[in-house]
Design brief:
Helix content is about 50%, strand content about 10%. It is α/β, with parallel strands linked by helices and about 180 residues long. The protein binds iron/sulfur cluster. Iron/sulfur cluster (SF4) binds next to helix 4 and helix 7.
Length: about 180
């Protein structure tokens, strides 16, 4: 299977890549995360995906879209903001997978116990239907800690907040 993995960041990609490669899946990556703010953070996460993908010899397609104002000006509740955020990214992944002949697409977001897992699954399946491509769903969460440990050993940057400017402003870690 030729699988496109939407990579939200390097550490979250480690475990899914590890298990899928062992199973013989051919993985290519997509870095499309216009939700990540501020700019320094966007670039730092991208650089770490470059570092990780070079280590694992995974080709990755990069998009440099940066849309802080969309997240900054969003007026709804958190769950609505995250719905928008997952939808924008997974719609792009589905369209890219369809246009470039992948068998399916997935996302590294499915490894994180801090993300809204069922919402991601639902949005991924809807994007798949819309674009006529398969969504590879799998609950990677049991491997989250292992993946984070491996990321640490590889010297990858492990961020302290989800990604958007709202999560940055709300994080107790970014205030330190
Ligand atoms: S909290 Fe995370 S998932 Fe939700 S909108 Fe912000 S970056 Fe996106």
């Amino acid at each position: 299977m030729k699988l496109l993995m939407h990579m939200c960041c390097a550490p979250c990609s480690v475990y899914p890549v590890e298990v899928l490669k062992k199973e013989g899946v051919e993985i290519q990556g997509l870095y499309y995360n216009p939700n990540i703010h501020p700019k320094e953070e966007f670039l730092r996460r991208k650089e770490n995906v470059e570092k990780f993908s070079a280590l694992k010899e995974i080709p990755v397609s990069y998009f440099d879209d940066f849309k802080q104002e969309v997240w900054e000006s969003f007026k709804g509740q958190e769950v609505e903001r995250c719905t928008m955020c997952y939808s924008i990214r997974l719609d792009k992944a589905a369209a890219f997978a369809r246009e470039n002949g992948y068998d399916a697409f997935t996302t590294s977001l499915l490894v994180s116990p801090y993300q809204k897992h069922e919402l991601i699954k639902d949005i991924g399946e809807k994007a798949a239907l819309k674009h006529g491509v398969s969504f590879y769903y799998r609950d990677f969460r049991p491997g989250f800690r292992q993946g984070q440990q491996m990321a640490k050993e590889m010297g990858l940057y492990r961020q302290k907040f989800c990604g958007c400017i709202v999560s940055y402003n709300e994080s107790p870690f970014t205030k330190k």
